Amino acid sequence: MDEEDLEHPNSSPEKRYFPESLDSSDGDEEGVLACEDLELNPFDGLPYSSRYYKLLKEREELPIWKEKYSFMENLLQNQIVVVSGDAKCGKSSQVPQWCAEYCLSIHYQHGGVICTQVHKQTAVQLALRVADEMDVNIGHEVGYVIPFENCSTSETILRYCTDEMLQREMMSNPFLGSYGVIILDDIHERSVATDVLLGLLKDVLLARPELKLIINCSPLLVSKLSSYYGNVPLIEVKNKHPVEVVYLSGAHKDSLESSLRLILEIHRSGEKGDIVVFLACEQDIEKTYEIVCQEGSTLNPDLGELVVVPLYPKEKCSLFKPVDETEKRRQVYQRRVVLTTSSGESLIWSHTVRFVIDVGVERRQVYNPRIRATSLVLQPISQSQAEIRKQLLGSSPSGKLFCLYTEEFASKDMKLLKPAEMQEANLTSMVLFMKRVDIAGLGHCNFMNRPAPESLMQALEDLDYLAALDNDGNLSEFGIIMSEFPLDPQLSKSILASCEFDCVDEMLTIAAMVTAPSCFLHVPHGAEAAAVTCWKTFLHPEGDHFTLINVYKAYQDTALNSATERRVEEWCRDNFLSSSALGVAEAIRAELVDIIKRIELPYAEPAFGSKENSLNIKKALLSGYFMQTARDVDGSGNYLMLTHKQVAQLHPLSSYSITKKMPEWVLFHQFSISENNYIRVASAVSPELFMQLAPQYYFSNLPPSESKDILQQASGHLPAMAAVRQDQDMCEKGPDAPEQRCTVQ
Q1: pLDDT above 80: residue 187
Q2: Which parts of this chain are annotated as the region Disordered (predicted)?
Q3: Distances (CA, A) of 385 to 197, 212, 221, 382, 426
Q4: Does the pLDDT at position 252 exceed 50?
């Protein structure tokens, strides 16, 4: 950047420094004088540290840096700016800092900066990196907000968050008045929350002309964004290094075996550099991890250590980052092999990656609203996904991409863009949110890709069954309270029902455990028997939901009686449990307790273990999950769904599978149509209990079946059915007596 750029009124003070002064030692006189000449950091008023200048040199090497002046000019003159750049060009870390400088220049009169990410791991790590680069404290000037964790204050200038957290903030702050600049990042992921924000922010921008919106996207998405938002300024950034692409015809027939062979061939070749492998699904990650670990132990040690790093995008795990310099010096050469799936691209932060292996297919979850079930479908990735994986090597002058498919496959079978999640997901939570913001006049929104009408109708029907809507189709009082919980609407309804059945404490534990990642570790081959032996100590005869309560209580007791956190981790490891997943569950539960207190819902004393409490927990669960019930049709564990004709089996780790005692009727938390058709997290219920708690009009709408006939017969054993249903309807619609109402503050 030339001298004219330095004199630009919005140029950051970071450009006015003397890097040669940093070469002096800390103790000499020249170094002291140099410190006196250092600029003050305008964000906290303190002198810049020497590390700031070191990081600034690295930032100036980023491909996006040369676009700073152009970006600041467009930001000043326009309300919307689109930044199109390859992966690793620096747009996610630098653009938010430039926006913070803009807000500083106008004295934050319109608010601070918020930048959305799809993955919570990325939001946290970006906040840590940017706080370091800005030379400020994390949690103060720069912070992050992710589900069930807030590391920021009301004074935070730059905040990273997940897209769903900004969406939830709109429930209480519809026009986002706390922010002067909003940055939507990771647009190419096409998550439901990001698409909702893209639509709603159109109206917010009209209501707030002073608000700025920055959209970071991949190059292939630019034309679609332009047609959606109109003719808006575009900043284009490209990486500088070409990448060698090798197409391997025939490798797609057995992509897993081909991936394994390539990993070992690269390692034996002696070429330096880490390897990233994009596989189709998490099961492939687990298989590859075991085989590579086993094979790696037999390789020539002179080639260096082969370290395998499984990276699951939906789990709360570490990102793949460069090895610390001090760690490098004391280690022998290590080649790291990262195993990940789709959406793992944004979790790769290391510049040491020299090889990428791409299988070209992914296993996607596609929701079918007709049968209210998710199918796992193997399909080609998009051209935009393939391009992003290629861009991971853009900073490497000798990077090599191995495509386990042909060029013809890439051009003919791969769609240009990744499918929008909104067109493949269960939209019940999204529709509940849209109904909530409709109270503020923002409910009518033009989406970039409109969801299927039958998906919207199914979502509305489900919300009606859950008593979240009134007779006019607006949110009922129940629906408003349900929207306060950052959970699936069925789970929120179960929590509200637990207030009536005096089992809130237990229901909150269940909600936290099923929302967090699975607490049961993936068991390595040969250790299955030992793991099952350990897990048997937690089994509860009433079902898996109760088993989860036992696991959580044991974890809590261990934490209470352990002097150190390491002891808790050892206990988890000894019992084949995930300490990180249980930690997440603990954080989720704490936030749910805070919500219960804030909206003043009744909270009964825990009574876990009694027969009455077990029955009450099942009543609360059925109040939300009556649409997810199944019956064992032949006495051998073949469960037929009540709403459709899919047959499933209980998961092998279910308490019933382990004890070989299969109940006739179960309610379940999760079911996917796949190779195994497993029901996950199931507990036994009775037909009489179902008929007592399921809405009559839901039962009437069930398709004819033997199961429905059995339920109809069970209703004849309930003489007080009418009175029970009347009480239930009063609870769902909200009684007139004000002292019985739940308030939302």
Answers
A1: yes
A2: 1-28
A3: 22, 28, 11, 5, 23
A4: yes
Q: In Å, how far from its chain's centre is CA 66?
A: 32
Q: What is the mean pLDDT of the segment spanning 54-76?
A: 95
- How many other C-beta atoms lie within 10 A of the C-beta of residue 356? 26
CA–CA distance, 569 with 289 (Å, rounded to integer): 22
- DSSP, collapsed to helix, strand or coil, labels residue 100 as helix
Residue type, 271: E
Cβ atoms of 649 and 637 closer than 8 Å: yes
**Residue percentage of the chain with pLDDT more than 70:** 87
CA distance 59 to 65: 7
Spell out the alpha helix ranges (H) of 78-182.
91-105, 120-134, 163-172
Helices (H), 446-564: 453-465, 477-483, 489-500, 504-515, 528-536, 544-561
Number of residues in the chain: 745
Q: Which residues make Cβ contacts (< 8 Å) with residue 172, sequence separation at least 6?
A: none
- 431-447: average pLDDT: 83
* 676-to-215, 376, 656, 673, 744 alpha-carbon distances in Å: 41, 11, 17, 8, 43
- Tens digit of pLDDT for each residue in 263-298? 999 998 888 899 999 999 888 998 899 899 888 888
Q: How many CB atoms lie within 10 A of CB 16?
A: 10
Instruction: Kindly state the tokens that stand for 630.
Output: 């199944």
Buried b (16+ CB within 10 A) or exposed e, 371-398: ebbbeeeeebbbbbbbebbbbbbbbbee
Torsion of CA 637, 641, 645, 646, to 10 degrees: -60
**What is the C-alpha end-to-end distance of the chain, expressed in Å?**
52
Reported confidence tier of residue 253, pLDDT bands at 50, 70, 90: confident
Spatial distance between the Cα atoms of 504 and 92, rounded to a whole number of angstroms? 41
Distance from C-alpha of 365 to C-alpha of 531, rounded to nearest angstrom: 29
What would the pLDDT profile of 626-680 be if each residue is shown by its tens digit? 999 999 999 889 999 988 888 999 998 899 999 888 999 999 999 888 777 899 9
How far is the C-alpha of 313 from the C-alpha of 316, rounded, in Å?
A: 8
